[in-house]
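Field: COMPLEX_INPUT
Field: COMPONENT_COUNT = two
Field: RESIDUE_TOTAL = 478
Field: MODE = joint
Values follow.
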Amino acid sequence: MNLSVHAKSPTVVVVDYGMGNLRSAQKGLEKAGVKAVITSDPAAVQSADAVVLPGVGAFQDCMANLAEAGLVAPVMGAIEQGKPFLGICLGMQLLMTISEEFGVHRGLDIIPGRVVRFDPDTRLKVPHMGWNRVHYSGDSRLFEGIEDGSFFYFVHSYYVAPEDGSVVCGWTDYGERFCSAIARDNLFATQFHPEKSHNHGLKVLQNFGRIVSECS
Amino acid sequence: MSPGKDELARRIIPCLDVTEGRVVKGVQFVDLIDAGDPVEVAAAYNEQGADEVTFLDITASSDKREIILDVVRRTAETVFIPLTVGGGVRNLENIRDLLKAGADKVSINTAAVDRPEFVSEASKRFGSQCIVVAIDAKRTSGPDGSLAWEVYIHGGRTPTGIDVVQWAARMEEYGAGEFMLTSMDKDGTKDGYDIELTRTISDTVNIPIIASGGVGTLHHMYEGFVDGGASAVLAASIFHFKEYTVGEAKEYLQSRGVPMRL
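Field: COMPLEX_OUTPUT
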């Protein structure tokens, strides 16, 4: 008989709404020591201790799929309850009020702000695709143990412009200076893909995992 | 937001030809248990600092797609950098299966020429960021005798009569996220990339270009980036046969002013 008492390990869900490579996000979390389950079940998201919202593709499709799957309320609920949340790429952009991708579309409006396209006048290639530096500002819990200005993997044509600059915890230069990471209480989001950013990315996921265990 | 500089690193992408789940011709790394296993080779390049890895599946039979999916699944468990898979991508279901297995991008070649709308359907459904259009280009003369390039398909065996510059512009319009531009003239020569081709396409379109075909020295990579305007360079034998490591290539390029992720 095993008499040792195990603390129940927190449940981290990776929200599956039909967009993108979820397997890498799950495996990246696993590699960083965070057990995560992929789910499209609203009830599972509702009862989770922490939520990871990945996403690639078009903003409008992502919002539509999220709504169709009945996942908007559970995701919003998790954030409102202060559960640790990590939005990745489009999962970050969805937090904004509106997006200007292919017309104007409403987002979740959790962080007041807009999603805008890189200025074509910079004559730089769009999508912004590849490894770029993230410089930290403000809340640096997500980047603990990673040198300032380290490289992370990006692939996107739009970026977030939050109204309140104090939520920006990382910024990146690509012809213009844009917000590449957000932190507000237990809400985190990155424009880059930590699950594709080698050791630095895995460290970000590990840091998120630590925040999750501290909260659980 | 406020103006900023361009800090985006240029990318180095080792490419593995894979058939029926095995690396074609193998690679020469001393420390690998199985140099024919694409998963193990991809992991080795990941450790060397490769910015992405590309698998080109040249398995002849299309009923063996499950094999490459298994390779992709196993790679995604150990390699946490972007993975592109090309070869035999013919329909939306092929793309969905590859992305679900853990690929980040797919490259489309022959199927795009057969039916260009496939590229727009794919980019609408999965996003431009994961749709790489591979173009095999061969030198020819334009109507006025000027230098031009023709699109080839079926692994470079079949000419199409399509002009590469026009094709690239059309594919960008259809939602391609990136071009993998291979020079048929240079491929296998170790003479360097076709810089005129790379520069011409880079100046024509606004999406990133991966230069491919002909790299034999680290200076060729430098030319691909600086003279050709490539965002990334693809290389195979130069790394597989241990002439250089990815790390050595990056040190060389960084010291000559090409921004690298070191």
